[in-house]
Structure formats: structure tokens, C-alpha cells
Amino acid sequence: MGTVEIADNLLGALKEEAKTRFVTDDPSNLLGGIVRQHLLDVCAPGFERDPMTGVGTRQALRVRIERAMFGLSWADRSVYQEKFLCIDVFKFKEYVAAVGNVEADVVLRELAAALGRHFGDQDTYRFGGDEFVVVLGSREAWLPEAPQRVVVAHAVVEVAIHRNQHRSGHVSRWIQTHLEGGILASSPEGTHLTCLDPIWLAQTYGRL
User: Fold this and answer.
1) Rounded Cα gap, residues 124 and 126, in angstroms
2) Residue with more model confidence, 27 or 77
3) 107 and 150 in contact (C-beta within 8 Å)?
4) Backbone angles phi, psi at 159, to 5 degrees
5) Rounded CA separation 105/53 (Å)
6) pLDDT grade for 171, boundaries at 50, 70 and 90
7) Which residues are 159's β-sheet partners?
8) Residues 75-130 pLDDT 10s
9) Where are the domains of the chain?
10) pLDDT category of residue 1 using cuts at 50, 70 and 90
11) DSSP state for residue 187 in the 8-state scheme
12) How far is CA 54 from CA 83, 149, 176, 178, 205, in A?
């Protein structure tokens, strides 16, 4: 890939325009968000699908959440609400040690395929090695019959948070952190987590 040349005065010009339009002395976060989003849109082909399972990647899920967080405009302060199904293969390392990597990969592919058939490949993501996240929306949680001798643990994570473009990076990390928490809290019996933004709680129910 060749070297991309960027004019020295480009960022300065963008900062001045942002200061004029958004009335702020420090538009760095805003500009950074615009640049990152555009780079994700046009410069990262191939990251969307996990090559082994064929479902979406964790990166693709993050991009989807960030786009949904944008809402209708930069001024959108509505509430983003979503429900996720977090899935983890229980004691997967022990299973790999017993059957080997080849057989374990078969199990992951079968699990991903079953989730994709039920929820759709566009809503199913491989979150980690043996971890999957499904964007449920209004649907109920569902688990496929566990392939072979594995036990599938799961948790449902519901999030509600105000859209805010000036803290979009924080908001995205907040959601990702709770999805990681859903993976950690998952159990064979199932776990339910409700994660509410403190600002949303304060505005909805008043400060306690």
C-alpha cells in the first residue's frame, strides 16, 4: 500500500470549521469521531465476518453499536435501548484439552451456524474465542442444542443509555464493558442483566 499524503493545513482548517459550527474551543473529540467513523466505513474491508465461523466479528458489532448510537443527527439525545444474548461455551479450555483444537473448532462452527440460522447471520457475532453475542432486539433468548459434550452458558444483557456524540467513545466502551460482563456472568441456567445509564436514570426517575 502506498503512503497517503495529508496536507499540513487540513486538520487546522477542520478544527476552525468545527469551532465555528459547534461553538466549542476544543473540537478534538468531535473531529476524532468523524475521522474514525469514516475510516471504518471506507478503509477496513474484510473485518466484518469471522473467517472460521462466518458470523460477524467483535469489531463489526462495535461498528454497528456506534452507528446505532449516532441516532438521527449529532444533536440526537434520545435513548438507545437494546437487548443482547451473550453466549459462552462452559469450561471450553477443558473441552479443548480433551478433544483437541480441530474438534473444538467444529463445535464453534456448529454453534455459530445454529445461531445464524435462528437469528440471522447479520445479528450474530463472534465476540471472542468461544464467545458469541446476538443482537436480540424484541426477540426472546434462544439456545441451540449444545453440540456434542459441551455446555452452553448464556446471559441476556439489556442496556439503556442516552445518545451523546460528545461522549460517544465513552458510550461505546460502556456497552462493550457490559457485554463482557454478560459473558463473565453467563451460566448454564441463564443470567439476566439490566444495565442502565446513570444519566438516563436521573432524568427518568429523578436523583435519588
Assistant:
1) 7
2) 77
3) yes
4) -125, 150
5) 9
6) confident
7) 82, 195
8) 777 888 899 999 999 888 888 888 888 989 999 999 999 999 999 999 999 999 99
9) 44-205
10) very low
11) B
12) 22, 23, 21, 24, 43
CATH of 44-205, one of 3.30.70.270, 3.40.50.2300, 3.60.150.10, 1.10.510.10: 3.30.70.270
DSSP track, 99-163: H-HHHHHHHHHHHHHHHHHHH-GGGEEE-SSSEEEEE-TTSPP--PPPPTT-EEEEEEEEEEEE-
C-alpha cell, 83:
437487548
CB atoms within 10 A of CB 132: 27
Cell of 25: 474551543
* Grid coordinates of 20: 465555528
Cell numbers placing 66:
456506534
What is the percent of the chain with per-residue pLDDT over 90, rounded to a whole number? Answer: 38
E strand or H helix that includes residue 61: helix 58-70
Amino acid code (one letter) for 164: N
Q: Which cell goes with 191?
A: 443470567
Angle, vertex CA 22, rays to CA 19 and CA 28, nearest 5: 55
In contact, 153 and 89? CB cutoff 8 Å: yes
Helix axes 168-185, 28-42, angle to 10 degrees: 60
Cell of 208: 435519588
The pTM assigned to this predicted structure is 0.72
